[in-house]
Write a structure and sequence with these properties.
Layout lengths: L2 E7 L16 E6 L2 E5 L6 H10 L8 E3 L5 H4 L2 H7 L5 E6 L7 E4 L2 E4 L14 E6 L3 E4 L2 E3 L15 E5 L2 E4 L8 E4 L4 E5 L6 H12 L3 E7 L7 H13 L4 E5 L4 H10 L12 E3 L1
Helix pairs in contact: 5-6
Length: 277
């Protein structure tokens, strides 16, 4: 088994070396020679630039997976597809990809959805696969589908969607994870973790019938109160994980707590970081 995770886009660039950062996330997952691009960042500019610097050929991707419809994960989709010159590629996302997403932050209301419309993907070589249920994308890599909220809180504060011409609370049912089977357990890959980290991890264990051994990606704790952060950190430590690599929207306090409490499992990461399992 050969698994590699390369951080292509993140808020943080630990060793610049010509790399760019932005508020967003994109990962390259490679398992047994199959390449999955996981999200595309906010604009596509750092994504394509960092691919060039890191020697990653955008035409060599086998799948594009979108964790949820927010702009900081989908904003680079069209630029990525255009860079491929229209070469066909499956695009796996939730059925809500084209729906607006509204956030109220700092006294302002703004639209933070993908901005994508029907036909945008197809006209550039994308082959959409809209899903809601879990399925095995390739051998040993599972798409979560919609994640039940049975084991802990979700992170959906200040988020709304449109329903019948009015704003209603957005549960972020489209927030999905990937689960990578690594033998005795699995690794969870998250975009923002809007579904709630406890829900993501416990559902993965239920779906695969194996324990969680690690988590990589956004944990969406940047705006959470200290009590919530401490509780989630304690939960992650209780799982005896081998790898905890928080990215993107995790926030500084969880990094500090994990560095002090999780020790060997905690991995500071950012754009340009390569993890090999």
């Amino acid at each position: 088994m050969d698994i590699k995770i390369l951080v292509l886009v993140d808020n943080y660039v630990p060793r610049p070396q010509g790399l760019m950062g932005e508020y967003g996330l994109s990962l390259l997952l490679e398992k047994d020679g199959v390449r999955i691009l996981y999200d595309t960042g906010s604009t596509g500019i750092p994504l394509i630039s960092n691919m060039h610097v890191l020697g990653v050929d955008p035409t060599k991707m086998d799948y594009l997976f979108l964790s949820h419809r927010h702009l900081d994960h989908t904003g680079g989709v069209l630029k990525f597809l255009e860079t491929r010159g229209g070469a066909p590629i499956p695009v796996i996302s939730h059925t809500m990809l084209y729906e607006p997403s509204i956030a109220t932050l700092g006294g302002r209301t703004r639209e933070i959805g993908s901005g994508l419309k029907e036909g945008d993907l197809e006209s550039r070589g994308g082959r959409p696969l809209f899903i809601q249920e879990p399925f095995e994308l390739i051998h040993g890599v599972w798409v979560s589908g919609e994640i039940p909220r049975e084991w802990g809180p979700s992170h959906t504060e200040h988020l709304f969607r449109l329903e019948g011409g009015r704003l209603v609370e957005d549960r972020m049912d489209d927030d999905m994870a990937l689960y990578i089977d690594i033998g005795k357990g699995f690794l969870a890959i998250t975009g923002c973790g809007h579904a709630g980290v406890e829900n993501i991890m416990e559902y993965g264990e239920k779906l695969l019938g194996k324990p969680a051994l690690g988590i990589v990606g956004g944990l969406h704790l940047v705006m959470s109160p200290p009590g919530r952060v401490e509780k989630l950190v304690d939960y992650l430590i209780s799982k005896d994980l081998k790898v905890i690599a928080p990215l993107h929207c995790t926030g500084p306090q969880p990094h500090w707590l994990l560095a002090n409490k999780a020790r060997d499992a905690y991995r500071p990461s950012g754009a340009g970081d390569l993890m090999e399992l």
